[in-house]
Amino acid sequence: MLPLALAILAADPPAPTYARDVAPIIEARCLGCHRDGGVGPFPLATYEDLSRRAAMVRAVTEDGSMPPWFAAPHGDGPSPWLNDASLAKAERETIARWVEAGKPRGDDADLPKPPTFDASGWSIGAPDATYELDESIRIPAEGTMPYRVVSIETDQPEDRWIRSVEIRPTAPAVVHHVLVFVAKAGEARLRERFSREDGRGFFAAYVPGNSWVTYPDGYAKKLPKGATLVFQVHYTPNGKATEDRMRIGFRFTDAPPKHVVRTASVADRRLAIPPGASDHRSEASVDVPFDVRVLSFMPHMHVRGKAFRYEIERPDGTTTVPLEIPRYDFNWQLRYALREPIDLPKGSRITGIARYDNSAANPANPDPNRTVRWGQQTFDEMMLGYFEYVLVEDDPARPDVLPDAAGSRLDFESLRNRFDRDGDGAIERSEVPQRLQPQVDRLDRNGDDRLTREDFGT
């Protein structure tokens, strides 16, 4: 017969209870979305909420599909990501053991203190300023919709610095994505035209799983005095006609920040995925012309997207992989915010490598028999690797240095990066979408149907 101490050690550990073991996990990892007023389709705020969905919660936490987080495991030690939503192995096992034990409630005295959420309903807290579309946009029950580009004039009497920003559609079920650009005074109409294309930086974004951001102390984006907000909205009808009226909210800083946050991207607009290809590779790079500090990454593909990887090559030839997404999920396009920003010296290169599954084995593939190219609709594809950065030696008063949304200029370099498909250093009129060709004519000083530096006076 075993001594009492050994018998106790050999016994199975006590079954987890909801109050003591499971509720803290749910509150920390799930209630941000799964609560009244949250973006989740149902609440998980009480024992009753969780108990009736316990089997499903166990299944999606065991397979890693919930909470949504797709960066490759980081190994031992703290996560390199500020917003890492993944469950630890012990947390997944606790939920599974609780379900197996019959979902014991436990003693309510063990429940953690209920979390508090801002009564305004905004994830960033009550905004200092909000702007709303002048009228609702109608979304039909079926078919496809081209991008809707609409503008809102702001009423700020001076330059403001944005610490937090959140985009809130009223019909999120039909919103594929939203990009918001900032146009300085006098540039709104031109910005509207160019914002119909993808592949450049943006001021704010809404995609599944990513609707708001708050920057650390000392970091902010600039909203110029009298600026116009230009919304690029992509709707996807889902079988029920509805209307949407987009809003955006800002929280300001009291003083200019030390660092101005900017957004840029790598993009392969020449993307062509062969029929049936199960592992097609696409790659794009951008050279870094000055010392920068990278804050976050956000890849974007459509339903054939399979995996995505960022690589960084420094001038000394060393290469690192700051973010690997081995299992891309179109339904959750996350912003991966670095806990420790990455300093890159001038001469570094940022590369995005995307992989696509255009085979019949991909259950989300709408047509494995066609060559898939860059396009706006989900049955087309995109290859975009956004990243946020600041200049290491920054000054809020410094003029813009890269085409970014925070007041970026429509200059030759930004246009050449987007439209010079043959790489000859000029923008042929034929390389620009037909609807934008009148703008080429307006800028073409010598009438040779091509844009060069001379046409921009540089």
What order do the helices and strands come in, and which of them pair?
Blueprint: H1 4-10, H2 18-29, H3 47-51, H4 54-62, H5 89-100, E1 129-132, E2 137-139, E3 148-153, E4 160-168, E5 175-183, H6 188-194, E6 204-206, E7 212-214, E8 219-223, E9 228-235, E10 242-244, E11 247-252, E12 259-260, E13 262-267, E14 272-273, E15 280-287, E16 292-300, E17 305-313, E18 319-325, E19 336-344, E20 349-356, E21 372-373, E22 384-391, H7 412-419, E23 427-428, H8 437-443, E24 450-451
Helix pairs in contact: 2-5, 4-5
What does this structure look like?
- The chain is an alpha+beta fold.
- Helix content is 15%, strand content 29%.
- It contains eight helices and 24 strands.
- The chain starts with a helix and ends in a 7-residue tail after the last strand.
Tell me the β content.
25-35%
Q: How would a textbook summarize the main sheet?
A: 6 strands, mixed
Helix vs. strand class: alpha+beta
Radius of gyration based on Cα positions:
24 Å
Measured between the Cα atoms of the first and last residue, the distance is 91 Å
Helix content: 10-25%
The number of distinct helices, counting runs of at least 4 residues, comes to: 8
Low-confidence stretches: 194-199, 400-410
β-strand number: 24
CA-based shape: globular
* Mean pLDDT across every amino acid position: 85
What structural keywords apply?
globular, 4-stranded antiparallel sheet, 458 residues, alpha+beta, 6-stranded mixed sheet, 24 strands, 8 helices
Offer a concise description of the structure.
With 458 residues, this protein is α+β, with helices and mostly antiparallel strands.
